[in-house]
UniProtKB/TrEMBL annotation:
Source species: Peribacillus simplex
Transposase DDE domain location: 75-135
Protein name: Transposase
InterPro entries: Tnp_DDE_dom (IPR025668), Transposase_InsH_N (IPR008490)
Span of domain Transposase InsH N-terminal: 2-38
Amino acid sequence: MRKTIEEVETNMAYRWFLGYGFHDKVPHFSTFGKNYERRFKDTDLFEQIFYRILMTAANKKLLSAEHVFVDSTHVKASANKRKFEKKIVRKETIERVFADAKEKHGMRWTTLRGLKKLSMQAMLTFAAINLKKMANWTWQGPKMA
């Protein structure tokens, strides 16, 4: 969150997208963790935010079911005879997304403990990444490879 807030403080495009003026104060990065602990811990607010972003992307026709990416980090390996038939679809894209999350959004290290807190942080981080992509696509159009 710290890196994301730093980006918002220095990048006018992010400020505009979030509705902040040039002289408006951006919340401290710890505000999100404190709000989670005090106000949103037992709610489904983050799922609602993620769902809303997903629906906005769908309404603007920014989603495609042509390629589906799944993070299979914690999926056990299967001893399937046909395992070599499965194709890895654009592995570089997935790795780039996680690399960006680590480098630009502070996902390399965490001070949070517990699956629920880490899930909340990951969901907010990737929601922020997706919002940035949607903003760029809205301004420039999607880059087709």
